[in-house]
Design brief:
By secondary structure, the chain is of the alpha/beta class. The chain is built from 12 helices and 10 strands. It folds into 2 domains: about 160 residues, Rossmann fold; about 120 residues, Rossmann fold, CATH 3.40.50.1860. The longest helix is centred in the N-terminal third of the chain and has 17 residues. It binds D-glutamic acid.
């Protein structure tokens, strides 16, 4: 018979956060994998982007994001943000005593596997702060130092996604993708890590320029790892509720209407506002 507190923990929600809406790509994966779980999602839309900021600012923001989620009683946290995973994972893991999963480990593993079976080249796409940290490059080379890892920061991809410019034929999206990806395409990387959780929404556009590459969704890989870890530690619920609450640090209506593009459903009834600056 498990201890009462353990049963209590099993029934607590899983926390997920991102600088904005991009983390919803990881959110929908984890909801699909764990339909019985409850979730609390936080998107810091008042302070997006994180990817153009310095490490101390990313650390400060992500500490506040985790403290907010802890105030909701979460049993584990999925950092659905490549920028935070690259710049603050160690700090967050050292600061809080609950399982915290970032998006690097799973994507690096999948990319290494694909590149080993292919031409040995991995490409990482991410925000400026992610690429500067070398997090994905180091993670792939830790698995296999013989793989060639190239990387490219794509700062304009996030505003394209946040504004809904994601269609395969969108002129602006294609012009920007051409600028970022045409040189990379010449190397035909076997695996391309979408190291920012906004980028899966641009997969069709990115795929236009990199038709020979497998695109790896870092949020999806992280969701798989989270499921494994919670299952191994016995922390999955048996209660079968599947509720999700969404929190934003900015306008609720705007958040819910943009979220519809990511999730395909209306979440306005379950979206709330929080003042993230209160969590310090
Ligand atoms: N979704 C964030 C990431 O995965 C990027 C957005 C931002 O720059 O804040 O890196």
């Amino acid at each position: 018979m498990p201890e009462k507190w353990f049963v209590y923990m099993q029934n607590q929600p899983i926390g997920i956060f991102d600088s904005g809406l991009g983390g919803l790509t990881a959110m929908s994966e984890i909801q699909r994998l764990l339909p019985d779980e409850d979730f609390v999602y936080f998107g810091d839309t008042a302070r997006i982007p994180y990817g153009t900021r310095s490490r101390p600012v990313i650390e400060k923001y992500s500490m506040q994001d985790c403290k907010f989620l802890l105030s909701k009683g979460v049993k584990a946290i999925l950092i659905a943000c490549g920028t935070v995973s690259s710049n603050a994972l160690d700090l967050l893991e050292g600061s809080f005593s609950l399982p915290i999963i970032g998006v690097i480990e799973g994507a690096a593993g999948r990319a290494a596997e694909i590149a080993e079976a292919g031409n040995g080249i991995v490409c990482v796409l991410g925000t400026e702060a992610t690429i500067k940290s070398n997090s994905f490059v180091n993670a792939v080379n830790k698995i296999n130092p013989h793989l060639k890892v190239i990387s490219k920061s794509c700062p304009m991809f996030v505003p394209l996604v946040e504004n809904g410019y994601t269609n395969k034929d969108n002129i602006a999206a294609n012009a920007i993708a051409d600028e970022y990806l045409s040189e990379i395409a010449l190397q035909k990387p076997s695996a391309v890590i979408l190291g920012c959780t906004h980028y899966p929404l641009l997969a069709d556009v990115i795929g236009n320029y990199l038709p020979d590459s497998a695109l790896i969704d870092s949020g999806r890989e992280a969701a798989l790892i989270l499921k494994e870890k919670l299952s191994a530690s016995g922390l999955l619920t048996g209660s079968g509720r599947g509720n999700t609450e969404y929190y934003t640090s900015d306008d609720i209506t705007l958040f819910a209407s943009l979220a519809k593009r990511f999730l395909g459903s209306d979440i306005s009834m379950n979206t709330y506002k929080t003042d993230i600056e209160n969590f310090s």
